[in-house]
UniProtKB/TrEMBL annotation:
Name of this chain's protein: Protein N-acetyltransferase, RimJ/RimL family
PANTHER family (UniProt xref): ACETYLTRANSFERASE, RIBOSOMAL-PROTEIN-SERINE ACETYLTRANSFERASE
Alphabetical UniProt keywords: Transferase
Organism: Actinacidiphila glaucinigra
Highest rank taxon of the organism: Bacteria
Every N-acetyltransferase domain range: 14-183
GO CC annotations on file: cytoplasm
Listed Pfam families: Acetyltransf_3 (PF13302)
SUPFAM superfamilies in alphabetical order: Acyl-CoA N-acyltransferases (Nat)
InterPro entries (UniProt xref): Acyl_CoA_acyltransferase (IPR016181), GNAT_dom (IPR000182), Ribosomal_N-acetyltransferase (IPR051908)
Single GO MF descriptor: protein N-terminal-serine acetyltransferase activity
Keyword Aminoacyl-tRNA synthetase attached: no
PROSITE patterns per UniProt: GNAT
């Protein structure tokens, strides 16, 4: 069976690497953020046990069983966890994968999501010889659409009623969330879409087998 290798990817400011047990506290904090709950399907409230099973079971299985790869996004200088990039629903025959991502609230607005996703795409195209990266954003998720646009993704259309997001019911103050259906915008990135961007970035990114990098 085909699967991605265990890797780390370094960019100018970030290191993307497999999750470790020591990431659990920072991960729990990140997952309980309002925007993460609203725009993703993570369990709510997100507990230490959720993080533990994600790191020990879900993430390794995603890679081992060929569905994708989960990478913890960390700041190179501080080594703090700032987010997650997740390649999923990989189609090895088509050489296409779908990317999901999140950045911790305190680290947003610094261009980290764009930097992490772009570096992952570069690795996927150059090293893994993939031909397509797909991205799906909820119709109202403006920040995520901005990320897609910034890295050069092309919007391909709308999947009507294809997603679920969570909102606070109007007038409710008890912290409850409600799931509502939403349209999804499909974006794609092909290797040629990155050509211009790669030349713009001064020193580009670098990747290594995780064991080598450690
Ligand atoms: C979407 C998300 C990953 C962006 O992370 P980030 O590191 O702040 O992203 P970047 O800094 O690379 O880019 C964000 C861009 O969105 C813009 N932005 C942020 N909030 C916005 C909003 N409400 N409306 C419009 N644009 C917005 C920022 O200004 C920035 O654009 P700029 O660089 O042109 O100024 C982060 O907000 C997040 O984790 N959200 C919750 C989870 C989520 O939505 N994941 C994606 C699911 S598809």
């Amino acid at each position: 069976m085909t699967s991605f290798p265990e890797i780390s990817i370094s960019t100018e400011r970030l290191v993307l690497r497999p999750y470790e047990e020591s990431d659990i506290p920072a991960m729990v904090e990140m997952m309980n953020d309002e925007s993460v709950i609203a725009w993703t399907s993570v369990p709510y409230p997100y507990t230490e046990a959720d993080a533990r099973s994600f790191i020990a079971e879900f993430a390794p299985a995603e890679r081992a069983e060929g569905r994708g790869i989960v990478l913890a996004v960390t700041e190179f200088l501080t080594q703090r966890l700032v987010g997650t990039v997740h390649l999923q629903r990989t189609d090895w025959r088509i050489r296409s994968s779908e990317v999901g991502y999140m950045i911790a609230p305190w680290a947003r607005g610094e261009g980290y999501a764009a930097e992490a996703v772009q570096a992952t795409a570069q690795w996927l195209f150059d090293d893994q010889k993939f031909e397509r990266l797909e991205l799906r954003t909820a119709a109202d998720n403006a920040a995520s659409q901005q990320v897609a646009q910034k890295i050069g993704c092309i919007s391909e259309g709308v999947l009507r009623g294809a997603g679920l997001v969570r909102i606070r019911p109007e007038g409710e103050t008890d912290g409850r969330w409600e799931e509502i259906r939403t349209d999804l915008i499909v974006w794609s990135l092909l290797p040629e879409d990155l050509d211009g961007l790669a030349e713009e970035s001064a020193d580009g990114s670098d990747y290594a087998a995780y064991a080598d990098w450690q």
